[in-house]
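Hi R.,

Here's the chain you asked about this morning:
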Amino acid sequence: MSAPEANPALGYSSSLPHDDRPNAEEERISQATQLQLTWWRFRRHRLAVISGVVVLLFYLVTVLADFLATSDPHATNARRSFIPPQEIHLFDDGAFRPHVFGLTGRRDPRTFRLSYAPDATRKLPITFFAKGYSYRFLGLFETERHLIGVQGRSNDVDGIFPLGTDQLGRDVWSRLMLATRVSLLIGLAGVGLSFVLGVLLGGISGLYGGAVDSVIQRVIEVLHSIPTIPLWMGLAAALPPTWSTVQIYFAITLIISLIGWTDLARVVRGRFMALRGEDFVLAAELAGASQTRIVLRHLLPSFTSHLIASVTLALPAMIISETALSFLGLGLRPPAISWGILLQDAQNVQTLVLAPWLLVVAVPVIVAILAFNFLGDGLRDAADPYGD
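And the predicted structure, written out as tokens:
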């Protein structure tokens, strides 16, 4: 008896039963690479995807910090002290014409406190790609163009201050843009160095074992036994006060990296010890592959996703480290600008009474830390593409 012919009307298209034929989805999954499986699983984690977009926006700010600033973040002006956040009006007489009102200062005769009020008779148009202070765009060429600016200034007080000014009359928005760049780049550089140290020392420890493993593990235990904050404070306090801002920047990055590599090293060590006895590693050794080739071509790619997740989760700790050191006065110092330095400006109770808007600096710190943690959780879940 011959096999039945294909008949779509009857619900089958071959002689094999429907349940025995792999469907398109199963075939697509079976042929996908590990990177594709990780990406498909990551896309299902909505919160992690949103957090990834937020993280990308933060790093976009680091690239375009000077372009997004509205005025020189280092320029002081006593006449602009403690200007409250300025309202930006988008429409004028039903037409889209962004503008802000000019400011009028008035000193209270009883408290001698200078207060500012918008003057509705003076509208300052907001222009895009306006001229401002000079800076090097992406470090490539000199320019004076900024995303937004105002026209028609009649005095030193007039301007655009979306987040107000501090005690010295410096624009908080512009300072926040540059602080975001400094803090995030320190975190990224610190994680990069700790990643290299963690993978290198953890790989050596797990691959060779023996006395080498014992020495590396004892070093990790010694570093873990020292209280973190006093260690940071002691190392940061040892920096010479005569060092420039750039020297302190790299020193803080190095200090944070030397402390932050231990956890990643233990993860890499554990993975190497678990994988070095697997069949594919033994097959590579029998085929004559060198230790370097085995590590780079077989061991590391097998848990790259876990490394990415570990790095993402380590970034918030690095950012908090720099912010805490600078807040305590042991990290970056003025005229450098970072999240910790801006929070240090807001720690005075009297300042907070006069200018509570200075606490807005805490918002990007909290948002960035949460975004990195949610992104890390999503990457960690996606690192096992074959999971449920």
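The radius of gyration is 28 Å.

Let me know if you need anything else.
M.
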